[in-house]
Amino acid sequence: MCSWLLFSLEYPIAIAAAALLRPATGRKGAADIVAPVVFGIALFAATWRPGAPPELVPTLMMMLFGVVLFSFRDRPRRFALALAIMFAIGTVRMTGEPSGRRLVVAERSFFGVYRVLNNPSKGVRTLEHGRTVHGAQSLAESERLDPLTYYHRHGPAGDVFSLTLPGRLPRRSVAVVGLGVGSMACYGREHDSWTFYEIDPLVARIAADTARFTLLRDCPPSTRVVFGDARLKIAAAPASAYDILVIDAFSSDAIPVHLMTREAFREYFRVLRRDGVLAVHISNTHVDLEPLAGALVRELGVVGRVRHDMGFGFCDVDADRPLSIDLGGTCRGLRFARGAIV
């Protein structure tokens, strides 16, 4: 817990300290202490509800409490103390303790803070980076090799490996951009060859630490991890190297736009075999990437399919969407000729 707080509070402490450097107006007084304390009590009372979603905290901060903070801007001590209290409450709230989750470890790299958490109520251990869950593993022995979260077997990932022609090959060469905890590896078979492209060595170290996650060790395929920027590394790969290529590199709703350009997609299809499948995870809280992916599909002259997963493993087709082409309302019997699932 101490290491998590240290990692999480470094930038908030710097911001609060910077607030102290603002020019002051008026005289110092007890209100510079009392007002932030009252502010903190009100914030705590408004947001501290066990089981409430952590998103409630930033939402309220951006509304009423943001207005109150702004009113403190010309009183440096009041402003800095209120910021410090706000960040402290938000940090403790985001640890998830009120909902029963337990922090196992927190580590930091250049790319941010990663947290491994146990959730006894759901029976899973997760790897989280910001607001993104990078993967999970069941704590139950009988289910520990089941891919979870959005990698579940009845969702888009399951379709890629069970309903497409490359997915049904007896020996498959698969590449995945974004390692997470290695959930995708559990779709592999003993004689498959799997390559994960991962930019952050810390993610690979966490995924390979069998005291935390065992998917890479226990799932069937032979795997290797290539470190570095996936676009550059894929450009160095030989042509027609893979049957399936999965792009799943988004983090905390941040979009690595260089992976979504026409030049990048040309590289993806260069390393795919003739009947290969490109699967791109395009869900995002803030940006609708489906029209972009649809434009790339049309420009490159390939077949595109969109698979909407609402947590129940079903297909949904919207005829008004440019990428929803010829799916027929069902995922059964899909066939792809040099196609892309997006």
Walkthrough of the structure:
The protein is α/β, with parallel strands linked by helices. The chain has eleven helices and eleven strands. Strand 8, helix 10 and strand 9 form a beta-alpha-beta unit. The longest helix has 19 residues, at 76-94. The protein is elongated, with a radius of gyration of 23 Å.
Short descriptors:
342 residues; alpha/beta; seven-stranded parallel beta sheet; 11 helices; 11 strands; 33% helix
Task: Summarize it.
The protein is α/β, with parallel strands linked by helices. It has helices at 2-19, 31-47, 56-61, 64-71, 76-94, 156-162, 201-208, 215-218, 230-235, 262-271, 290-300, and strands at 102-109, 112-119, 124-129, 132-138, 173-177, 193-198, 222-227, 242-247, 272-280, 303-305, 339-341. β3 and β4 form a beta hairpin.
Topology record:
Blueprint: H1 2-19, H2 31-47, H3 56-61, H4 64-71, H5 76-94, E1 102-109, E2 112-119, E3 124-129, E4 132-138, H6 156-162, E5 173-177, E6 193-198, H7 201-208, H8 215-218, E7 222-227, H9 230-235, E8 242-247, H10 262-271, E9 272-280, H11 290-300, E10 303-305, E11 339-341
Parallel strand pairs: 5-6, 5-8, 6-7, 8-9, 9-11, 10-11
Antiparallel strand pairs: 1-2, 2-3, 3-4
Helix pairs in contact: 1-5, 2-5
Tell me the fraction of residues in β-strands, as a range: 15-25%
> Main beta sheet: strand number and arrangement?
7 strands, parallel
User: What would you call the shape?
Assistant: elongated
What structural class do the secondary elements suggest? alpha/beta
Order of helices and strands: HHHHHEEEEHEEHHEHEHEHEE
Helical segment count = 11
Cα-to-Cα separation, first versus last residue: 39 Å
